[in-house]
Amino acid sequence: MTSPNTTTQAAADPIQSYLNRGLRNYWYPVAPSWQVGGAPVGITRLGDQIVLWRGKEGKVRALEDRCPHRGARLSLGWNLGGSVACWYHGIEIDGGGTVTKVPAVSNCPLEGQKCVKSYPVEEHAGAIFLWFGDDAHQEPAPLVLPEELVGEEYANFLCMSNWKCNYQYAIDNVMDPMHGAYLHATSHSMAEGDKQADMRVRKTETGLMFEKVGQRDVNFDWVELGETGTLWMRLAIPYKKKFGPGGNFGIIGFAVPIDENNCQVYFWRTRKVSGWQRDAWRFMYRNRLEGLHWDVLEQDRYVLESMAPNARNHEFLYQHDVGMTRVRRMLRQRAQQHFADLDAHRARAAQAGSAQTEAAGHSHA
Predict the structure, then answer these.
(1) CA–CA dist 178, 265 (Å, integer)
(2) pLDDT in the model for residue 165
(3) pLDDT (0 to 100) of residue 321
(4) How many CB atoms lie under 10 A from the CB of residue 235?
(5) DSSP 205-255
(6) Segment Disordered: which positions (predicted)?
(7) What is the arrangement of strands in the sheet containing 262-271, beginning at the earlier edge strand?
(8) pLDDT at 74
(9) Is 109 exposed, middle or buried, given 0-12, 13-18 or 19+ CB atoms closer than 10 A?
(10) To 10 degrees, what angle do helices 14-21 and 322-363 make?
(11) How far is CA 355 from CA 19, 137, 352, 363, in A?
(12) Which residues of the chain have pLDDT under 70?
């Protein structure tokens, strides 16, 4: 079985090695919209070095952060609108990865060549999303986001943080509602409810729901994982009326791989409010709630960053972990399917190459 990367994996479990680097063939948020303005921005996601820039019309473009000439970082260069210019020798590359100009050489053969990988880009809810397709999935799947991020009846705020842990730890953390009653016991919103609970998993149209049996709207009592061209998590935290209009406080979360040891987390705080209630909630969030929510997020970060990189190899799981283990199994199944799709893709490419070689041989006979 071959690996989704061109480099052969020496690890005993190539599936887990692939998962550790980051599961491809999904859309991921990679940066808040405000981060990409005039100058090119260099980032690393799923181990890929990427340059982002915003053209004159406002559209974000994304390329492999590598000049095809000598390999210099394009993110050190200039934003020319529809293209980016390398600082090293001024070579210009458009948003599709094609070299448009080599100023140091007239009629350079490099001009007109697509030499750099490009990434499909969409921008929603104040964040930039990229498609990370492998060779067998270059055409992006439709990106369908939860209604809380795209519906006009919702207001939301984006919180993004960098965590020094593998992204799978962040997914495990959200898929574990029981930790709220302990880790966040001093929180303004998660101090109530039972310290013991039975848990159950049920399927949804887009993924699965993991919930406490017999307790709802008391604490962090349920979490949903959705798979809609991207992997997102949804949960709700009960709020007292003194915390403003809109009922329960919703969270839509994403865990984004940077590399095997680092990730970014994106958490949109949402509420279904409109008119004056929207204005009241936005004011209250900025002035009273935002700092409290960051405190909760920091509690998660402290614990996850304290765990060893191989902590998953030494676990003793129990009933509360059934949702987490279901998600792990699902992601592993997706990884196995990616391997199979790539093997089939490469077999078709090899067969097509052999047919072309044979046809060329006959034409010269």
Answers:
(1) 20
(2) 98
(3) 85
(4) 21
(5) SSEEEEEETT--SSSS-EEEEEESSBEEEEEEE---GGG-SSSSEEEEEEE
(6) 346-365
(7) 155-163, 262-271, 249-259, 231-237, 222-227, 207-212, 199-203
(8) 98
(9) exposed
(10) 100
(11) 35, 23, 5, 12
(12) 1-11, 187-198, 213-220, 239-247, 355, 357-365
User: 251 with 235: CB under 8 angstroms?
Assistant: yes
Q: Report whether 247 contacts 272 (CB < 8 A).
A: yes
Q: Which residue has the tokens 């680092």?
A: 262
Q: Is there a contact between 98 and 114 (Cβ–Cβ < 8 Å)?
A: yes
Number of H helices, E strands in the chain: 6, 17
Per 3-state DSSP, the chain is made up of helix, strand and coil in percentages (nearest 5) of: 30, 30, 40
Domains contained in the chain, CATH given: 28-131 (2.102.10.10), 147-328 (3.90.380.10)
Please report, as a single letter, which amino acid is at residue 251: I
pLDDT for 320 equals 79
Give residue 216's pLDDT. 53
Question: Token pair of 219, please?
Answer: 């604490």
- Asked if residues 173 and 208 have their Cβ atoms less than 8 Å apart, the reply is no
In angstroms, the CA 146 to CA 126 distance is: 14
Question: Which residues, at least 6 apart from 33, have a Cβ–Cβ distance to it below 8 Å?
Answer: 123, 126, 127, 128
Buried b (16+ CB within 10 A) or exposed e, 327-360: bbeebbebbeebbebbeeeeeeeeeeeeeeeeee
For residue 94, how many other CB atoms are within 10 A of its CB?
Answer: 20
Phi, psi of 270 (to 5 degrees): -130, 155
User: How many CB atoms are closer than 10 A to CB 230?
Assistant: 19
Token digits of residue 48: 């890929």
Return d(Cα 249, Cα 235) in angstroms, integer: 9
Q: Are strands 48-54 and 199-203 parallel, antiparallel or unpaired?
A: unpaired
What is the bridge-based pairing of β-strands 249-259 and 262-271?
Answer: antiparallel
User: What confidence score (pLDDT) does residue 7 get?
Assistant: 39
Element (DSSP H or E) covering residue 131? strand 127-131
